[in-house]
Amino acid sequence: MSEEQIKKPGPNELENGDAGMHALVQMLRVLFFCLRILIIFVFIYMLFSGMFRVDEQNEAMLFRFGALQSRVLEPGQGETSILTSGRWYWAWPYPIDWVKVIPAQKSVTVATGNFFLPWVNPQTGQSPQSEGPASLKPGTDGYVLTGDTNIMHSKWDVVYRVVDASRYYLDFYDDSDADPEQGKKRPARGADAIIRSLLANAVIQETATWTVEDLLATTRTLNDGTIENIKDNVQRRLTSLLEEVGIGVQVQSVNMLELQPPFATADAFAEVNSSSEKGRSEILEARTYRDRVILAAEGRKYQIINEAKSYQSRVVESVKADSSYFETVLTEYNLNPATMLTALYTDALREVLGKVSNKYIVHRRPDGHQELRLQLSPVPEKDKPAPVQQ
User: Fold this and answer.
1) What value does the mean pLDDT take over residues 258-263?
2) What is the pTM of this model?
């Protein structure tokens, strides 16, 4: 094509092209401005969406690309990977950072049915008490052996709370430990499975030291008079085992839910238990009587001692008073013997005459005659003769 055939643009076409370019530039400016605004909003969202606060009932752990992050505590307190309540924290959006919220100081109940029969009454939901198999199936029916080689069935549970979330959730916890869906069994792994196994070990070890009579009563008295409870002993053993494992939990209570002998020997155990209860009742009554008699004897002993001490004080004070009186009389007698003898004679005569009801006084007159005077006691009113009525 020759140059003549090329059509040059006219003035109108140049003006239309400049206008289109100008509109395109304006549109690009608007788009870039909106993009900047969007970037600012995204940055602000990322900045503030990463802020979070842990509730008082919970704790949290921060993972960055799957690695647990730790934070420095106050000087001298080291580091911790647990985010506690009362402070604000920041994290990158997922999948860079992931915050796992965990219950703080939560209480969990774990039950063990390893020592009980696996079948229950479908109508009541409880184990039957009057019917059952005549023999146990090894590997299926659960039981424990007592110290006197008796078989018992029991159910136990333990209530614990998490006190070291880092060890519990990082070293032992399995997400399947959470409440399973309805109709599904709990998985046999994780922290709950470990605690359940340790509880079973504690029950086996402790039950093997008890006789069946004491186990049925759930208490026993040692030779030194100490009274032990089977639940307290199992709890102590379980606490010791958990401390050895270092699972980061604290036992709150251990409970024995059910305890019963094998069904084949239930009647015999009931008779033995009844006799044991009667024996313990008689022993308790005898001890009560013994304590009552001892207390009465102790009270009588202290009463006799106090009376003897009181009599001793009276006698000593009387002797001291007589001694002081005789010393005074002796001093006066040494000064004036005749006067003191007369005074003592008069006092003795007054004391003697005061005890006599009838007194006879014999007096000698100056002319040599004697005069006899009788001073008779008056006749009491009750002894006077009644007047004679005419």
Assistant:
1) 82
2) 0.53
Confidence of residue 118 (pLDDT cuts 50, 70, 90): low
Shared domain for 215 and 235, answered yes or no, is yes
Does 111 share its domain with 210?
Answer: yes
Q: How many domains does the chain have?
A: 3
Q: Which domain holds residue 27?
A: 17-49
Q: Which residues pair with 153 in a beta bridge?
A: 260
Q: How many CA atoms lie within 13 A of 244 on its CB side?
A: 9
State which H helix or E strand residue 102 sits in: strand 97-103
Residue 338 CA to its chain's centroid (Å): 88
DSSP annotation string for 29-59: HHHHHHHHHHHHHHHHHHHHHTEEE--TTEE
Q: Closest Cα partner for 162 from 224, 110, 126, 87?
A: 110
Strands (E), 199-322: 219-221, 227-229, 249-260
Decide if 64 is inside a domain.
yes
What pLDDT is attached to residue 296? 93
Higher pLDDT, 373 or 241: 241
* Cα–Cα dist 291/285, whole Å: 10
**What own/partner pairs with CB < 8 Å and gap ≥ 24 does 194-199 have?**
194/245, 194/247, 195/110, 195/158, 195/160, 195/242, 195/247, 195/249, 196/110, 196/111, 196/112, 198/238, 198/241, 198/242, 198/245, 199/110, 199/112, 199/156, 199/158, 199/234, 199/238, 199/254
84 and 199 housed in the same domain? no
Query: Is 249 within a domain?
Result: yes
The answer to whether residues 90 and 165 belong to one domain is no
Kindly report the CATH number assigned to the domain that includes residue 208. 3.30.479.30
**pLDDT tens for each residue of 6-19:** 445 555 554 556 77
Q: Out of 24-38, 277-291, 375-389, which region has the weakest mean confidence (pLDDT)?
A: 375-389
- Is the same domain home to 43 and 56? no
Q: Is it the case that residue 320 has pLDDT exceeding 70?
A: yes
Indicate if 71 and 196 belong to the same structural domain: no
pLDDT in tens, 170-205: 777 665 555 544 444 555 567 888 888 899 899 999
Same domain assignment for residues 93 and 161 = no
